[in-house]
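Lecture 7 notes: from sequence to structure.
We start with the chain below.
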Amino acid sequence: MHRIYPLLTAMMYRDKGLMTYTLDYGTMVWLPVVAWLVEGNGQRLLVDTAAPVEAVRAARNLPTEHVATLEECLKTHGVAIGDIDTVILTHLHYDHVGFLPMFKRARVYVQKSELNAAYHPHPLQKNIYNTDLLEGINFEAISGEAEIVEGVSVFPVPGHSAGAQAVAIQTSKGKAVISGLCTLRDNFYPPSDVAARLKVVVPGQHMNAVECYDSLLRVKEVADIIIPQHDLGMATSGPIPEGSDDQ
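Predicted structure tokens for the same chain:
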């Protein structure tokens, strides 16, 4: 069984409407920039790398606060950068790959369609990819579903980006799924007035809203524990599942 640890490196001050399409515009919130350390079966791997504040500000000149370097976050768990030889990237937006250049000796798993989109972005998404961060990386480009290591697998969740993938991780309390789409808890569990007409709320930033909707539904179907990637509660929690360090 595996445990998942959020590694919080920065905070972004953003309009909540960027996360909840057609809702919450004008409400400003702090969104975490997070990587996820996965431990189990004698292995350690990383899902996304998060990003330093400099990489976040370079993409969007909005308030951003430094929390910690990724190296500092890993150190709190007794892990060094060199201990990580497997990285899974949910997608290649700047806030998910900012520390990627530190892992040039690791094998890095990404969907082939996402890698292609990063190098040939639509003008609407050009500012959220930074190919300088991708140079010299040992990519393992995959297409569709795949098992990365025992108990850790990926499946496509298109819509937010061309080749986003969710990461399913077997834990002591069932399957935890790191969403693959930039989401909050509200995306999966809308308020009651919205839930009367929508089972999920797609991210405000997307390439295809219908695909996003279907991808969120699939995550909900697969997961016993949903991990939205920009949910502050998840990003500041202890190990996932809760209390798993005590078992």
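Points to note: The radius of gyration is 17 Å. The chain has a mean pLDDT of 94.
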